């Protein structure tokens, strides 16, 4: 008995594919009983083509509005069949972009006859127009909503999947379904207007006990016009990915088991966040927003899912069978690993492309004899096996390795916890840094709303990545600062060398310049004194300069990429040295003025001035959660201060020229040699222009330092000088680059009478890094390893760590010379809290209470101490006898044990924790959110593109 079949073809603006589809349908070896065509508001000739092909035999196409969904079109087609009195057993559904092979229907019916229990059958789908690439052989869905085909990307059809098997679902493009089953299940879900209805229908069919087979012998060529965005409809709009993702989430939520639904709701929400991050990493923000919109659409309308689940509740006798056809649980994790692999491959390929361009550029200027011989297999073998040999026979590589080892030995104190000098102890956990970053009111001292310094965020991120240990994060930064700066300086100077001369800089010059730059934070004294911000800036500056070189790239898109990278690195460096942004802004102004005077037309080109302007603007935007509240709270002095404990070292003119901080660091004459070498670099004519550029940078830094050095900053506790340490680093970096460029000219222009001069200069230059290393290994006094002594009894410190209300009032000095006070809370002043306390204005009411406490303590004063969260009063040695006597006689103060001559008293009053609570600044909360999103976007714009859809 031959089965009867009716064809149901749905079209919408498919005029470009319909002629071939009509020919394919007419060429079927098995006749059909009826052809019902439903056209959903086509604006092209689709409906006319259908009428011309089938109206004479089966009636005109049913024309409906363009907003008609695919499920509704199928329902209207079935109704047309009933009105025509058709009694066909099967319905073959086709799309207007799905061209069936002449034997497709015959193969499907043959499989149905061979397996009478099959109710839904689907063909093998190949890509149209390639005709050989596989698209689907049945589909299923993963626990995260991903459409799973079981095929590799771009897999060609070689018969490797040609076996009939049961699947969860088949595509509606070529689906052969028993008419009774289609009507029994209510057709396709109206909540899935265009995408995902095939998987939902297959899942419902399997749960109802029906079987779905894939028949590879039947072939249909599918253009996937809607999925690929080739065709826009009122149903897809401009956001195809949104519709696809919403359909996937709806299918999972509507068909999942009841007991798994709560977990699925949480999993999909968390998974959407991960997917958004993945899309942002590959620079596809539109798809990330589509994912979020799809999730919010469903979660904001739970009634849709509830109605769907009620409709399915009575049709699930074979639910376990349907679950067995779903994708395995581990598939999403495999896709995650694949994504990470793709990202790593993209970054590697990008680096290889850059290296290849540089190799080609070098080969273009090299002598013909060096590039004429082609590479052979033997060359490849030698290259693969000779890496170690080349390393051991390369003096530059050995010298660099030895330098790194010596630098690690010099930084050996960093293998332990660091504190001392300008470096406060690290907090106990990364959570304390995160809390300091996000809270808008800090229970420090008497309470303050001064924001946390900007560097707290990157340090909290690093500590979190290292397992939540801030101490390890600080030690790692101090340990690797010199090697990291060496790496960045080598990359930067190598590019500078290629810009100066086609053959590039000699490796000996690069070696000297990179090692000298890497030692700047050491020989300046910043490392040994614990000036953490200077160390980070010195290690970051060569990477920042390397990124800024992209502004000179001929391609506009590369200049904009340089803008994002430069802005992000400048923001990072400015978080540790705020004055660095002022320098960058002043330098940018000088460059714009010079460009206007030299090349006026370039200033009119937005792709020329736009990238550097964007890089500069990114810094205040990304650091807005710090500087905006700082200005609000009267703490704008933070822009001109070095980070760390005050007072910071003061740099005079000689210190700026020699790269030293207030007498700290290596002998000044080693820095003077570097300045002289930079000055001598102006002599060779061939490289005078780039050296002049370096001197312009140095002069801008010197002028800014001179302007800032003329004033002082009056803080609540003391008066300090402005922080110039970052400008010292900039000056030294400019000198290093200038001297390296001069060395390039000297090596390439060695006449006989200049050889002696070159030898003298080389010896003098070698003294700079060698002398700095020798001083660091031997004579340097690392106060950063001394720790921070405390003269407060241990049991009081332990009590203060129980909560901020267990504060300790520490009064120092004498009545004759003046008394000062501080309030210790928690684990004391840690990194990040120094700047907050230094910039907090004086609490005049609390100062008046302390003044009255040490002169005429009344019960009201003692009550006020308890209400302010003060548990102990301590007079460290040498304690003033007069003050101690006054406190001994005070009612409400109980003498506490302390090692003489330190005196201590306990406040015998209830402690009030609520007194340290302050108002929430919603402005800062909003700035934190916006800056976090902005940072994420900038990081994405800095990354390579690996979007599969774009590729």
UniProtKB/TrEMBL annotation:
<dbReference type="GO" id="GO:0016757">
    <property type="term" value="F:glycosyltransferase activity"/>
</dbReference>
<feature type="transmembrane region" description="Helical">
    <location>
        <begin position="444"/>
        <end position="465"/>
    </location>
</feature>
<feature type="transmembrane region" description="Helical">
    <location>
        <begin position="510"/>
        <end position="527"/>
    </location>
</feature>
<keyword id="KW-0808">Transferase</keyword>
<feature type="transmembrane region" description="Helical">
    <location>
        <begin position="756"/>
        <end position="777"/>
    </location>
</feature>
<dbReference type="Pfam" id="PF13641">
    <property type="entry name" value="Glyco_tranf_2_3"/>
</dbReference>
<protein>
    <submittedName>
        <fullName>Glycosyltransferase</fullName>
        <ecNumber>2.4.-.-</ecNumber>
    </submittedName>
</protein>
<feature type="transmembrane region" description="Helical">
    <location>
        <begin position="608"/>
        <end position="628"/>
    </location>
</feature>
<feature type="transmembrane region" description="Helical">
    <location>
        <begin position="723"/>
        <end position="747"/>
    </location>
</feature>
<keyword id="KW-1133">Transmembrane helix</keyword>
<feature type="transmembrane region" description="Helical">
    <location>
        <begin position="391"/>
        <end position="411"/>
    </location>
</feature>
<dbReference type="InterPro" id="IPR029044">
    <property type="entry name" value="Nucleotide-diphossugar_trans"/>
</dbReference>
<feature type="transmembrane region" description="Helical">
    <location>
        <begin position="260"/>
        <end position="282"/>
    </location>
</feature>
<feature type="transmembrane region" description="Helical">
    <location>
        <begin position="666"/>
        <end position="684"/>
    </location>
</feature>
<feature type="transmembrane region" description="Helical">
    <location>
        <begin position="691"/>
        <end position="717"/>
    </location>
</feature>
<feature type="transmembrane region" description="Helical">
    <location>
        <begin position="472"/>
        <end position="490"/>
    </location>
</feature>
<keyword id="KW-0472">Membrane</keyword>
<keyword id="KW-0812">Transmembrane</keyword>
<feature type="transmembrane region" description="Helical">
    <location>
        <begin position="922"/>
        <end position="943"/>
    </location>
</feature>
<feature type="transmembrane region" description="Helical">
    <location>
        <begin position="534"/>
        <end position="552"/>
    </location>
</feature>
<dbReference type="InterPro" id="IPR050834">
    <property type="entry name" value="Glycosyltransf_2"/>
</dbReference>
<feature type="transmembrane region" description="Helical">
    <location>
        <begin position="572"/>
        <end position="599"/>
    </location>
</feature>
<keyword id="KW-0328">Glycosyltransferase</keyword>
């Amino acid at each position: 008995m031959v089965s009867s079949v009716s064809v149901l073809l749905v079209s919408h603006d498919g005029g470009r594919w319909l002629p071939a589809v009509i020919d394919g349908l007419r060429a079927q070896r098995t006749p059909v009983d009826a052809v019902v065509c439903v056209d959903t508001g086509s604006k092209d000739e689709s409906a006319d083509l259908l009428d011309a092909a089938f109206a004479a035999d089966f009636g005109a196409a049913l024309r409906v509005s363009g907003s008609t969904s695919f499920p509704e079109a199928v329902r209207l087609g079935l109704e047309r069949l009933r009105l025509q009195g058709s009694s066909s057993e099967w319905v073959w559904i086709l799309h207007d972009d799905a061209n069936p092979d002449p034997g497709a229907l015959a193969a499907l019916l043959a499989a149905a006859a061979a397996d009478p229990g099959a109710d839904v059958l689907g063909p093998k789908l190949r890509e149209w127009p390639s005709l050989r690439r596989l698209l689907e052989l049945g589909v299923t869905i993963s626990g995260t909503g991903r459409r799973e085909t079981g095929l590799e990307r771009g897999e060609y059809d070689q018969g490797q999947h040609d076996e009939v098997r049961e699947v969860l679902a088949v595509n509606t493009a070529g689906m052969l379904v028993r008419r009774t089953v289609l009507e029994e299940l209510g057709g396709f879900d109206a909540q899935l207007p265009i995408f995902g209805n095939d998987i939902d229908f297959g899942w419902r069919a399997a749960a109802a006990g029906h079987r779905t087979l894939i028949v590879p012998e039947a072939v249909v060529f599918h253009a996937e016009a809607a999925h690929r965005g080739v065709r826009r409809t009122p149903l897809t709009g401009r956001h195809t990915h949104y519709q696809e993702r919403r359909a996937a989430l709806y299918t999972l939520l509507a068909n999942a088991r009841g007991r798994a639904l709560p977990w699925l709701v949480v999993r999909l929400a968390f998974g959407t966040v991960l997917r958004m991050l993945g899309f942002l990493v590959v620079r596809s923000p539109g798809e990330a927003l589509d994912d979020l919109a799809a999730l919010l659409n469903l979660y904001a309308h739970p009634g849709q899912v509830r109605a769907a689940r009620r409709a399915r509740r009575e049709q699930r006798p074979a639910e376990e069978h349907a679950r067995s056809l779903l994708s395995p649980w581990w598939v999403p994790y495999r896709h995650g690993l694949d994504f990470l692999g793709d990202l790593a491959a993209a970054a590697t390929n990008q680096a290889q492309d850059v290296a290849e361009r540089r190799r080609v550029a070098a080969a273009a200027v090299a002598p013909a004899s060096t590039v004429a011989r082609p590479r052979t297999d033997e060359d490849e073998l030698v290259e693969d096996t000779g890496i170690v040999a080349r390393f051991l026979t390369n003096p530059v590589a050995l010298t660099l390795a030895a330098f790194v080892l010596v630098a690690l030995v010099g930084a050996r104190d960093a293998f332990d916890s660091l504190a001392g000098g300008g470096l406060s102890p690290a907090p106990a956990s990364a959570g304390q840094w995160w809390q300091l970053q996000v809270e808008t009111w800090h229970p420090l001292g008497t309470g303050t709303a001064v924001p946390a310094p900007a560097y707290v965020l990157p340090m909290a991120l690093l500590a979190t990545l290292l397992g939540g240990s801030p101490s390890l994060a600080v030690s790692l930064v101090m340990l690797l600062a010199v090697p990291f700066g060496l790496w960045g300086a080598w990359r930067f100077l190598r590019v500078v060398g290629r810009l100066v001369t086609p053959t590039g800089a000699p490796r000996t010059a690069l070696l000297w310049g990179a090692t000298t730059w890497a030692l700047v934070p050491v020989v300046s004294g910043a490392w040994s004194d614990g000036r953490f911000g200077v160390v980070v800036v010195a290690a970051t500056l060569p990477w920042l300069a390397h990124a800024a070189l992209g502004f000179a790239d001929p391609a506009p898109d590369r200049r904009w990429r340089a803008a994002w990278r430069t802005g992000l690195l400048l923001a990072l460096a400015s978080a540790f040295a705020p004055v660095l942004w002022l320098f960058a802004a002043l330098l940018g102004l000088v460059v714009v003025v010079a460009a206007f005077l030299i090349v006026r037309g370039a200033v009119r080109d937005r792709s020329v001035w736009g990238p550097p302007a964007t890089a500069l603007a990114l810094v205040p935007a990304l650091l807005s959660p710090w500087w905006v509240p700082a200005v609000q709270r009267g703490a704008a002095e933070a822009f001109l201060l070095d980070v760390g404990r005050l007072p910071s070292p003061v740099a005079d003119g000689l210190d700026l020229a020699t790269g030293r901080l207030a007498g700290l660091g290596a002998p000044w004459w080693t820095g003077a040699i570097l300045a002289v070498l930079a000055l001598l670099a102006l002599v060779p004519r061939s490289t005078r222009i780039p050296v002049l550029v370096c001197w312009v940078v140095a002069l801008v830094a010197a002028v800014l330092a001179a302007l800032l050095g003329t004033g002082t900053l009056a803080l609540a506790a003391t008066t300090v000088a402005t922080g110039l340490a970052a400008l010292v680093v900039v000056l030294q970096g400019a000198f290093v680059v200038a001297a390296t460029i001069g060395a390039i000219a000297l090596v390439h222009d060695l006449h006989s009478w200049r050889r002696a001069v070159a030898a003298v200069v080389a010896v003098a230059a070698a003294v700079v890094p060698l002398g700095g290393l020798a001083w660091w290994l031997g004579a340097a006094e690392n106060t950063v390893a001394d720790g921070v002594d405390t003269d407060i009894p241990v049991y009081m410190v332990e009590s203060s760590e129980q909560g901020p209300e267990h504060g300790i009032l520490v009064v120092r000095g004498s009545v004759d010379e003046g008394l000062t006070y501080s309030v210790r809370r928690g684990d004391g002043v840690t990194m990040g809290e120094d700047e907050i306390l230094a910039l907090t204005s004086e609490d005049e009411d609390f100062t008046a209470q302390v003044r009255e406490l040490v002169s005429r303590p009344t019960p009201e004063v003692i009550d006020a101490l308890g209400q302010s969260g003060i548990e102990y009063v301590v007079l460290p040695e040498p304690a003033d006898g007069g003050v101690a006597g006054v406190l001994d006689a005070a009612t409400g103060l109980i003498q506490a044990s302390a090692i003489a001559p330190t005196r201590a008293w306990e406040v015998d009053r209830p402690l009030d924790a609520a007194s340290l609570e302050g108002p929430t600044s919603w402005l800062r909360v909003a700035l934190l959110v916006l800056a976090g999103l902005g940072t994420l976007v900038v990081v994405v714009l800095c990354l390579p593109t690996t979007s599969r859809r774009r590729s």
